[in-house]
Amino acid sequence: xxxTALIDAARExxxxxxxxxxxxxxxxxxxxxxxxxxxxxAQIAAHYRLQDDELTAVYxxxxxxxxxxxxxxxxxxxxxxxxxxxxxLREHNASEQLQQMVSGCILATKMPQSxxxxxxxxxxxxxxxxxxxxEYAERSKLLRHEVEMVHHKEVDKIEWLKSNxxxxxxxxxWTDYARTLxxxxxxxxxxxxxxxxxxxxxxxxxxxxxxxxxPDGTTTxxxxxxxxxxxxKDHKHKEKEEKAKKPDRGVETMFRITSTNHIRLSSMADxxxxxxxxxxxxxxxIMLTLLIRRLEDYPNFIIPSLLFVITSVTTVIFAVLxxxxxxxxxxxxxxxxxRKDANLLFFGxxxxxxxxxxxxxxxxxxxxxxxxxxxxTKDVYHLGVVLGHKYRLLRISYNVFMFGLxxxxxxxxxxxxxxxxxA
Length: 423
Prior knowledge:
Residues 26-141 form the HD/PDEase domain. This protein is mainly alpha-helical. The chain folds into three domains: 2-127, Hypothetical protein af1432 (Orthogonal Bundle), CATH 1.10.3210.10; 130-243, no CATH class; 249-418. Helix content is 70%, strand content 3%. The chain has helices at residues 2-20, 31-47, 52-64, 77-91, 96-108, 118-127, 136-151, 157-170, 176-204, 226-242, 249-291, 302-323, 334-339, 355-366, 369-418; strands spanning 208-213, 219-224. Helix 1 runs parallel beside helix 3 and helix 5 packs across helix 6 (118-127). The model is unreliable at 207-231 and 242-247 (pLDDT under 50).
């Protein structure tokens, strides 16, 4: 409760700072960006299940990481934001350890980023989470506009595109979660920027000699001559031809929806099986405790009762088979990884492995797009196979129950009408 209150206080503090200190030139480093970083930090932190002070540090650092832009020109905004955050925490009687954690997270976002702990990596990745999102192009335009207004100088579009491509290409996310989730869209953003650059270069012609700020606020010089431009374009073209075509965003959506539907259907099958087990368990209990003890008085009901018991037992057997878990060996080898035979997305293939071995295998898979999507395909396929097996057994269970119940009731009626017990 205390940490939650501290996070809420930090949020209100930053909201008030932006409200009371409007900066029209900050069209990128504004409240919208800060809130986006907070949301991204919360998403990554949830994946790693951070608790207590670590989670609090991530939230507060995300809220304060760009607060320094409201205090000065932004050249040392990380230091200013860290100092402001520490002062805020002291006023709220936060521990010295929490102060150091928050300060370290904010300072780690300074370019080039230099995180040393998991929470610092999370804040750094959250700060640049948009690099791997569909909003990147729009965010880049806002950043360029902000640079122009702050420095009172127009930024050449060609040099801006080159600086963006260079920045995106050199940038790497720190957490495995961000690398896996954002890599494909970040690669797509690089492609889109390269297309825009190629088009602009074709329009402009021979040479460009300019100086322009990079997204991190530093400055670099580019000297592009006609010959180098064509050489660079030919090299890029060859790389594009050699590079395997990667699935677009729709494929990932397809995998996610298909897997979710399979899991939902599997849960429905288990629920139906539990219904059969419960109902027939009750029937068997009644048959064994009440009716069978009276069969001496009603011998004509022996066959119908036996038929009813066999029906219930058979139904329960197939329902149990439909829900019975089947766990595989739980190990994989480096040869399996090399051959891309191991499906590391299914627990049955790794539950006996050590964490270090599993992490190694996952890194190999995440660095190979074909292996990654091949594993996802196998996972969906095997989910479907298991699901088909469940529903076949479940159908048998329901059929046995339905037809056995009908036959049992008819047998009871025949026994009662045509073979009554004589007094």
